């Protein structure tokens, strides 16, 4: 056979050399050529690129929706706080201003001096305020915070002599709560309210001793301090008589401050000897009325309507916004993290 006869014509070669070509000998589809490999590689690349594009698109939509939700929540909180501010800053007509003192009185609690003092100032500054009610439901707390609030109430009463202040007890008004209440012109309570507890106490880890337990467990205490009395009342060290005497003198001093404030606020209305009134006992509203610790039995509505003469009650209590609470907590977390990085204990920071 000649060379011309052994090679297929140009048309035949182009017919069976393509990716879908058939073999001229067998008549079956031919696979695995260079055209097949290029086509498969191109298809895989297209699929991979499409997958990456879809992932990017999904990620962008997720970010968009998260930002949208955050913006919505921010707008809701802003409108809520604005409405609360409008309720207390723009009040038509005469009314009774209300300030709530709820829970433990402490710097980091809802009943803290900064918020309560701001609330009281807003209440007194309002042109329509005919009287102020301190609605108290507190077991007590920090004498420092209670002292700040007591001082501010007295100052505002002098600055606004025509606006009377009344304390109204709900469930309990004890210790620091009563410290605040005595700054009012008069105190009212329910017959079953708990009133009193005029005393001072120290609680916490310093009031426990673990020296005997450490001996039994074979634990050695290694406390380092600069200053002879710097580690006084350490619960893991033996208690010294001079430490007890110093602590009792400290508590007695604060107790006398408390007694002085109560006598200034109640004056001749107090009945009974000092030992009975100021030994830390507490009484019901009926008993407190007989002892002169309160002036009458009644609720906030009763005082606003029948005593002040302005039945409409407007709440001036300042409540921190969710963003303020978040900022405060974030600040605490950052302070603890900084203290930890510097090798300081949590107790030392406090």
Write a short abstract of this structure.
51% of the residues lie in helices and 12% in strands.
What does this entry look like structurally?
- With 350 residues, the chain is α/β, with parallel strands linked by helices.
- Helices cover 51% and strands 12% of the residues.
- The chain contains 13 helices and 8 strands.
- It has helices spanning 3-6, 10-16, 34-89, 113-125, 143-159, 176-181, 211-217, 241-266, 274-277, 285-291, 300-308, 322-341, 346-349; strands spanning 95-102, 129-138, 165-174, 186-189, 194-196, 282-284, 296-297, 313-315.
- Strands 1, 2, 3, 4, 5, 6, 7 and 8 form an 8-stranded mixed beta sheet that branches.
- Helix 4 runs parallel beside helix 5.
- 23% of the residues are buried.
- The model is unreliable at 1-26 and 341-350 (pLDDT under 50).
Distance between the termini: 106 Å
Q: What's the quaternary structure here?
A: single chain
Main β-sheet: number of strands, strand sense, barrel status?
8 strands, mixed
**Number of contiguous helices:** 13
Low-confidence parts:
1-26, 341-350
SSE topology string: HHHEHEHEHEEHHHEHEHEHH
> Per the principal axes of the C-alpha atoms, what is the gross shape?
flat
What number is the mean pLDDT? 79
What class do helices, strands and sheet pairing give? Answer: alpha/beta
Please estimate the helix content: 40-55%
Radius of gyration: 39 Å
Q: Care to count the β-strands?
A: 8
Strand content: 5-15%
């Amino acid at each position: 056979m000649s060379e011309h006869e052994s090679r297929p014509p140009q048309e035949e070669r182009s017919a069976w050399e393509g990716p879908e070509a058939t073999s001229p000998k067998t008549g079956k589809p031919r696979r695995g050529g260079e055209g097949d490999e290029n086509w498969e590689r191109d298809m895989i690349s297209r699929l991979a690129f499409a997958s990456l594009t879809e992932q990017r698109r999904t990620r962008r939509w997720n970010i968009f929706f998260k930002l949208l939700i955050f913006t919505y929540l921010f707008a809701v909180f802003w409108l809520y706080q604005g409405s609360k501010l409008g309720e207390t800053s723009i009040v038509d007509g005469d009314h009774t201003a209300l300030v709530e003192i709820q829970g433990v009185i402490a710097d980091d609690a809802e009943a803290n001096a900064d918020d309560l003092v701001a609330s009281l100032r807003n209440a007194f500054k309002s042109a329509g305020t005919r009287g102020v009610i301190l609605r108290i439901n507190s077991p007590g707390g920090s004498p420092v915070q209670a002292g700040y609030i007591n001082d501010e109430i007295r100052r505002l009463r002098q600055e606004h002599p025509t606006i009377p202040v009344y304390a109204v007890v709900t469930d309990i008004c004890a210790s620091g709560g009563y410290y605040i209440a005595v700054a009012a012109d008069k105190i009212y309570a329910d017959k079953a309210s708990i009133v009193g507890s005029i005393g001072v106490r120290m609680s916490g880890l310093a009031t426990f001793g673990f020296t005997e337990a450490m001996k039994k467990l074979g634990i050695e205490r290694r406390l380092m301090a600069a200053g002879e009395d710097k580690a006084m009342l350490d619960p893991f060290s033996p208690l010294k008589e001079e430490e007890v005497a110093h602590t009792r003198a400290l508590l007695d001093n604060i107790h006398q401050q408390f007694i002085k404030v109560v006598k200034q606020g109640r004056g001749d209305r107090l009945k009974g000897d000092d030992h009975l009134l100021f030994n830390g006992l507490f009484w019901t509203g009926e008993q407190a009325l007989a002892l002169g610790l309160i002036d009458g039995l009644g609720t906030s509505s009763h005082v606003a309507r029948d005593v002040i003469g302005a039945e409409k009650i407007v709440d001036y209590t300042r409540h921190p916004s969710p963003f303020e609470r978040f900022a405060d907590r974030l600040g605490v977390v950052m302070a603890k993290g900084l203290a930890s990085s510097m090798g300081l204990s949590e107790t030392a920071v406090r």
